[in-house]
Structures are given as structure tokens and as C-alpha cells.
Amino acid sequence: MTEAAPATEIVTACVLIIGNEILSGRTQDENIAFLAKGLNEGGVRLREARVIPDDAETIVAAVNEVRRKYNYVFTTGGIGPTHDDITAACIAEAFGVKLILHPEAKRLLEGHYPPGALNEARLRMAHVPEGATLLPNPISRAPGFRIENVFILPGVPQIMQAIFSQLRHTLHGGARVLSRSVSCSLGEGAIANGLTALQDRYADLEIGSYPYFRRADFGTTLVIRGTDQERILAAVDELKTLIRSLGGDPQDGAAEN
Amino acid sequence: MTEAAPATEIVTACVLIIGNEILSGRTQDENIAFLAKGLNEGGVRLREARVIPDDAETIVAAVNEVRRKYNYVFTTGGIGPTHDDITAACIAEAFGVKLILHPEAKRLLEGHYPPGALNEARLRMAHVPEGATLLPNPISRAPGFRIENVFILPGVPQIMQAIFSQLRHTLHGGARVLSRSVSCSLGEGAIANGLTALQDRYADLEIGSYPYFRRADFGTTLVIRGTDQERILAAVDELKTLIRSLGGDPQDGAAEN
Fold it and tell me: In 3-state terms, what secondary structure has residue A202?
């Protein structure tokens, strides 16, 4: 992201996944993981993700809570043409502004649909809160939009991802979180004491411990995250020494998030 | 679930996914979708899911917020043996009780590990808030636990699922949400107006509209949810008539959530 903040600045984000279909278990969410990676790569730390239903009161309250708490908020879902698409109206209500027909959004939809097909329902997708900026949608034209620090994206993963790819360079990222991982066939409980001591010596880093189970194989992956690459590499060295001292064989992992 | 509530009662739940690895994008969450299905099948409606970091203040605040707002709360993650496993201590703090070594949990771990392997770190997994009830773990023995309306489960999907399967019959379910789905190759925008009218006539049901994209094929899946099977079937009939009137060919879907 181009507009880099000072390397020590911490920039935070929250994702709101809006949709009954996630809460009913019908749809497996993919948007949290995608946005988590995309934001972290740009120095924006995802601090919370919340899945909420297509309910106006809930959406308005959640948006107003998190937009004050985090630097950025990204919503997905609820900006299509049907009766259950209420996100734009809720965002307008949360900001206390009117929902307006955006002339440029209307023009985009007119260019996308055959003559006569831009009916009242589809025109819902050209309505945004007054003062919002459009976020171009290179796939199906109906735009997302931004108002202040809140970005409103569609729920369909391919389209959400395409819009996000075009907006990410506009984000003001802070210190990027780098990470390294090391795996070993030791159980978490075997390495835990040494790991606590390592974490205490590297209080500026975050050491996560994740057990894995693959067929007959199990073990632990340790992920070390932080903003200072040299410190991370030093901690990785100490971690490998710890693993070897316990009879394990440390394996470097692929790039981690 | 055995302890059925009156058919009209609405029983709600919230899921708290605790873990930096979800917020960093390292791990794709699977627990929300699994719990959503399992709860809905038992008449418990998942109303919110929240992903939060391994941060004590955040966990305590979230637990205390949602345990008062919903009938049930399920947490996943953070109950292993390492320094980043802080969920049990946070739950004790949220309830204002002590974290104690549970004799039965200790006995379970003693039976699971070879002599001498139950070190201090692994004994962390036998600590629960005072007053908590253990939730048996048929896979790796370290139990989950319940305190009042909050169920604390591990983050590893296989183990979480095994524990949930053993506790679900203890939940007090309300009116179960049934559903049917119908797909057609019409776009959402083509069917939206008729759908709004249908939703208005069936205000007791919830009609969701979900676009789909598969290779060169696209269309819309409509999901009708409610507690009265007859009303759902009546709405499905009207929906099929609507789709046919617009030139579409309605296809019955598989069982939906």
C-alpha cells in the first residue's frame, strides 16, 4: 500500500460479515481469511471479525460500535438487488445520512444491463449513503462504496476480492507484521515450558503454538510474528535450539500469515 | 436435543472464535459453519459469531457481553497447554471466580499421558473456573468445560466436533428452523420484485436470495426458512410459479440450512 505510515504505527481493522446464510451454516465463509491476509500484507491488522444477520438494528449498532474502535471497517454482503439486501440503507442510518441514487453508479449499471433490464430492483444497487465514494467492481459493475473509514463490499467472494484488490493501495498501512514458522513432531505440552521462557525473552514478538494432526502424524507448528525481521530470526534460532534440546527435529515452514 | 422447549420459543446462541491464527489469515475457520449447522439442527439459532484475538481484556469483555445477550455461548480455541492458551483464565475472570485444578480433569490427563509426561504445562489443561462442569473429550482427553450458559471448546476442529457431539443433547432447543431451497437461472435482479411481494405475503418466513456463479453458468438460489413446514411448502409453490412466470425453470435444491 502506497501511503505508508511510520513503521511503528499500529493500524487496525474489523470485518463485519453480514448474512443469515453464514449463521445458518449454509455458506462456509471465505471472506474473513481473504481479508485477513490482504490487510495484514498491507500493514493493517485485523483485530476482529463478526458475523451478523440481515437485521437492520444489529447492523447499524455493530457498524457504529466498530467504526469508532478500529481504523478501518470492511463489511461484506447485503448490497445486491433483493429485499434481503439492506446493508446500504443500514450504513446510511448508522452515519445519519440519506440513502441517495448515485448518478455514476446508475450510469455504470446502465452500461452493464441490456436496454430495459435496469429495473427498480437492480437500481437499488446504485443507492449509496450521501457522501459515499464508489469502489469500482470490475466484474459485475454494481459498485461497493466507502464512507469515512467504512468500506462496503459484496458477499460473493470473487467480486469482493476484485473490488478489494483495487482499493487496497488506498489504505494507510502501519508497521507490517512479518512471520516465520517452525514445525516439529514434539507435542505442544512437551515444548510449552521452554516456549513460555522464549516468549518472555521476546516480549516484542508474538509466539503462537498450533498443534497439527495428519493421519498418523502429529506435532506442533510454532509461528513467530512481529515487525522486526532480525528479532524474528533470532527467536527462530533460539526456538530451533529448544526443539533440538528436547529431541525434536525443527522444520522451517512456508511463509506464514 | 432431548429437552425440547415449546415449539414457538426462540433459543439463541453466539460463537466466539478465539485465536490470532484466524485473524492473521493463517487458518481458515471451519468451526463457525460446523456449530451453525449443529445448533440449528437442534433448534438453537446462531445469531452472532465473533473472531477475537488471544487478548485477555478482549476475551473477558466479549464473554461478558454475549453471555447476557444470548441463551448459549460457545467459545473455541485457547485451552491447550501453551502460553498463548488463556481462555480458561479469561472465563474465570469473566465470571469472577477462581481458576482451580479440577481433580477429575487431572485424573483424565494422568490416564492419557505416559508416566512422568504430565508436566506443569499439560496440567494447565486440567484447570477450569470454579463451578465449571467438564465436557468429555473422546479424542485427546483434555476436556472442554461449561460454566452457566457458556461452553468452552478447543479450536482443533476434529476435537471440537467430538466434544460438541457429546454435549448437544444437553441443550434446550426451541422451535427448529426448517428450510427449502429452489434454484433457477434467472438473475437476482429479474426475480427481486416478485420476491419482495412473496416475502411480504409470508412475513413469518425468511426468504434469502443468493446468486451463484459456476463456470459459464449463473443464477439465483432462493432459500425459504421458517418453523412451519406447511407454510414453507406453500411459499415454495408460489415461488416456483413466480419463477415460471418470468421464464425460468425452478429446480428443487438439496436440504438447506
Answer: coil
